[in-house]
Write a structure and sequence with these properties.
48% of the residues lie in helices and 16% in strands.
Amino acid sequence: MFNLSRLLSPKTQQLAALDLGSNSFHLIIADWEDGELKVRDKVKEMVRLGWGLQDDGSLDAAAWNRAQACLERFGERLREFKPGSVRVVGTKTLRSIIDSNVFLQAAEQRLGHPVEVISGEEEARLIYLGVAHYMAPTNGPRMVIDIGGGSTEVTLGEGMDLKLKESLDMGCVSITKRFFKNGRVTKNRLLKASVYCSQQLLPVADDFLEHAWNECLGASGTIKAVAKVCLENQFCDGEIQLKGLDAIIERYLEAGECNLPLKGLSLERQPVFLGGVVVLQALFQALNIDTMHAAESALREGLLYELKGRLEHSDIRPASVQKLAERYHVDSQFSGRVDSTCQLLLNQVAETWSLDEIETTKLLNWASQLFLVGLDVAHSDYHKHGAYIVEHVDLAGFSRIEQQQLAALVLAHRKRIPVKQFPMENVDLLKACLIIRLSVIFNRGKRRQTLPELQFRAAGQQMSLLLDQAWLQNNPLTRADLENEQQYLSQIGYKLDIIEL
């Protein structure tokens, strides 16, 4: 199983998106009718997952239980949905947990649908996508900011075109926990929190200040709460300004405590509100923001539109792969020949190897385009350089597990299969790896060579290649590579027979 997001038929009517944030879990359910999304329901639970993140990267029992209980309730709604019609993503806290697999497996059991962990950059892109779809565009660029529980995403774009995106290590839960954990508020603690936020912004602020924008939108519960508090306390007139943030912080300083009841502030947001206000104040100061308006849409809406786009065959991932290949000057003709050979071999063994042909085709196509990116770094161990790039670069549209699987194929496409780094328990991924290894062998040089008729058979761990004897005699390097491959595969329990016709 590759855990790739699946495409559904256009007849799908109900879609859902679930954002497992560090502060809240947000569920949105919509009908897809006549090419449009019509929201049916929104549900939010304040789980405060990030509050349970320990210094060693583990999650405490209380946060675990709150999260899983919430997911059990959400699962009652989502289990009736068809596979592929629900997208569930985890953000900052799930990126930070040492062994998130245990949490994800438990979550998937309760929800009945796979859970992805996305990067901060991908989170930023999806937030912008959600706001761009739900807010009427204005003339010129707009800045969109989302303050989550564990991270803050800052984006800048025009219409649907995203130009800048950053994810910063600060959020309402993490700042509150770090600087105001015992509930006390002092001038010194506020200063330390403000300096920390300014430090996070320093490396990226100039990039945003180089661009002008016509409006600034805030897309998060924290920002909507700030707008409401400012309005009901008459700090500002319906929008957020720096003077309103200063007034809120002054109230906390006077009270000397974090759990401060403010007019317009809900009881459940009260414990982490100050942390979010400090983050927002730092953003206003560093990015020279005059006025911010609260937006209703955010990550969950972006997820819905991303899912809708995939259903309409406008998946952003192929374009992301192509851009990365171009960036690292991959020979597209060479990679195209490898991809064609992969598809030829896959078509012959997909059934006997019980491979999902749609998912495997997609993954092999992407891997074929990217297996040479490491050559732009160095020829020696280029597969290792390439795997590092593919796993860690910003690939729009991809979840963390999808990038890890692509990186594993890049790493293992040549030489010995690195059993310590490759997820050997993922048998389907291993079979895909064996296909691309053989495809690379048959296209070992960048110059086009005439390939023989390739007959490939496979069942379990037994494989057979039926090849023309004369062709093998005329291509001794390929024969030698195939003999080496027999040795490499025997080391992992697979057998490759070369049958000469």
